[in-house]
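Quick one: structure for this chain?
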Amino acid sequence: MIQQIRHLLNRIIPHRGLLFRVAVLILVSSCLGVVFNLVYPKGLNPFVSPGVDERVSEFTYVAFEDAREKFNSGDAIFIDARKKEDFLKGHIPGAFNVTISDFAVGRPEILKFLPEDVELLVYCDSDECQTSEQVARLLKASGFKDVKIIKAGWKSWVAQGLPVEEAKDYNDDNQDE
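Got it. Here's what it folds into:
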């Protein structure tokens, strides 16, 4: 590829020096970058370090009080992003357990039972936990349109004395421990 570019530059600018060729190469690269940003739907932000994910801002963070109201009215489906063991110990009643590892082999089977146009409220342990954001991102990529994050998380839910459900078989399976 580099040889082809070098050959092309030699044909276009045969009698110019190396510095001039480098300047032309930089100009051509810059033009291609601008064209790419115009064509690519989201473009590239040149001011963000690689690895920094700016898509987090795409999510709405739901206040704890709003989440409680949604629970009481039944207007949303709750998604528990914590590990299965934690979910089995206790979760918001009616919540579905969807973890990052569930997406390792594609779209989790449980998602086919959820309507894609319903509001999903994703939570993990606390406001310091990043798992809810990762699962929310994967849910959006799976076609769900209205995905929000409960920033306060499970620990705040329990601390407020709100309803908690545990798996029916959890105590039976772990009585020996």
